[in-house]
Amino acid sequence: MSTESTVAIVGAGLAGLGAALSLHAQGISSTIYEAATASERFAGAIMLSPNALSILDKLDVYKKVVSSGWEFETVKFVEVDGKVTDQQYLGSKDVFGYKALRIYRNTILKALKDACAERGIAIQYNKKVISIASETASSATIEFADGAQGTHPLILATDGIHSRIRTSLFPQSTPTYTGILVVAGAVPLSALDTSSLPKDLTLNQPIGETPANTQPPFLLAPQNPTATDFLAGTQRRYPEQSREEWARINSDRAFQRNFLLEGVEGRSALMQSAARGIEDESANQAFEDGWSLALVMASEKVTQVWKNGGEEWLKVMEKWEGKRKERVGRLLKETMRMNNARAPKEVRDKLPKEEIWSGDGGVGQGRWIFEPKIEEWVEEITR
Ligand SMILES: Cc1cc2nc3c(=O)[nH]c(=O)nc-3n(C[C@H](O)[C@H](O)[C@H](O)COP(=O)(O)OP(=O)(O)OC[C@H]3O[C@@H](n4cnc5c(N)ncnc54)[C@H](O)[C@@H]3O)c2cc1C
C-alpha cells in the first residue's frame, strides 16, 4: 500500500481533469485514477457557457480549443412557419467576455489531458476504484479493482453519475431522473435536407431550435467551426427506466430513430441518419466546482486545515457545499424553465408564465449564471 502526499482524484472526466488543473494553479498537487484506458473515446459534443469558459481560460486551455468548436451567442426558438418566437443568450463576447461554445467532448478532454501532462499531473489509467477502504481524520485509503490500495490526504470523487465512491459513502443517495429524455446525434450537413427547414432559418445562424408549436422541439446546432457538422435531436417526457434498460436504449438505434422522428412530422425529411446521446447538462458546473474548491483549499486560513482534516475541515466543506447547493438548486430550476420553453405549446399553455424560460430579460438576465463571482463567495466562507 502506498501513502501519497498528493490529493487523489477519481475519474479523468471533465470534472476530474478540471479539478486537477485548478488545484495545480493553486500549487496543490494531485494524482488522477481513471478506470478507462488512455485511448477511450467519449461520444458527443457539449455546450460550454462563459462561466466554464472563463475558468478554462484561467487554466490556459480555452485559447487552445476555441477554434475547434462552434461559437454562438443566442438560441433561437422558431415555429414551423419560420417565425422566431424567442431568442435567448447563452453567451456574449461584449457582456460576459465569451460567446458560448459547442465542442466535441473528446476535443476538450484531450486539451485538458495535454495540459495535465505539461504540468506533470499524473493520470493513471486502468485504475478502477472500487471503494473507500478506510478513513482517518487526516487521510483516506482507496481500494482498486486490481487489489492495490492507495492512501491520500484527500480524495475527490469525480467518477461520474454512477460514482462508486458516492455509493460507498452514501449508499442511500442515488441520482434523480428529471423525467426528460433527450435523443440527439451528430449529423453531417450533407445528410440534412435543408429544403425542409422553415423559411428564413439559415444553417449558418448561431443555433436553431425548431418547432414547439404542437410538436416536441427539434433541436439543431452546429458543432464544428465550419458548420458542416450538426447536433440534431429532440427531447420530451419519458418514464424512468432501470439502469440496464437505459443502457439498452443507449445502443438501440431503432428506438432512437423512432423517438427522434415521432411527432416531428414535417421535420422527418431533415434527418437521414440518427445517432445517440442521453445525459444531463452539468459540465459547466463541474469546472466551477473544481475551481472554487481549489481556491478554498489554497486560501491562507484553510491551507493547513485540509491537510489536518478533522472537524475543522468538515466545517469548511459544509460551508462550501452549502454555497454550491444553493447555486445548483437555482440552476436546476432554470433548467426546468428551459425544458418547459422547449415543451409543446399544449404543455406550455398550462404552465404559469414564470415557469417558462424566456429571452424577454435580454442578455443581462443570464448574468448570475455566466458570471458566478466565485472568488467573492470563497472569500466569504474562508474569512
Ligand atoms: C451527449 C451528451 C451531451 C451533453 N451535453 C452537455 C452540454 O451541452 N452541456 C453540459 O454542461 N453538459 C452536457 N453533458 C453532460 C456532461 O458531459 C457531463 O455533465 C460531464 O461530462 C460530467 O463530467 P464528470 O467528469 O463529472 O463525469 P464523466 O464525464 O462521466 O467522467 C467520469 C470519469 O470517471 C471515470 N470513472 C468512473 N468510475 C470510475 C471508477 N470507479 N474508478 C475510476 N474512474 C472511474 C469514467 O471512466 C470517466 O472518465 C452532455 C453529456 C452527453 C453524454
Automatic annotation (TrEMBL):
Pfam families xrefs: FAD_binding_3
Gene3D superfamilies assigned: FAD/NAD(P)-binding domain (3.50.50.60)
InterPro entries listed in its UniProt record: FAD-bd (IPR002938), FAD-dep_Monooxygenase_BioMet (IPR050493), FAD/NAD-bd_sf (IPR036188)
UniProt keyword annotations, A-Z: FAD, Flavoprotein, Monooxygenase, Oxidoreductase
Single annotated GO MF: FAD binding
Residue stretches making up the FAD-binding domain: 5-172
Family membership: Belongs to the paxM FAD-dependent monooxygenase family.
Protein name: FAD-binding domain-containing protein
Taxonomic source organism: Cyphellophora attinorum
Lineage summary: Eukaryota, Fungi, Dikarya, Ascomycota, Pezizomycotina
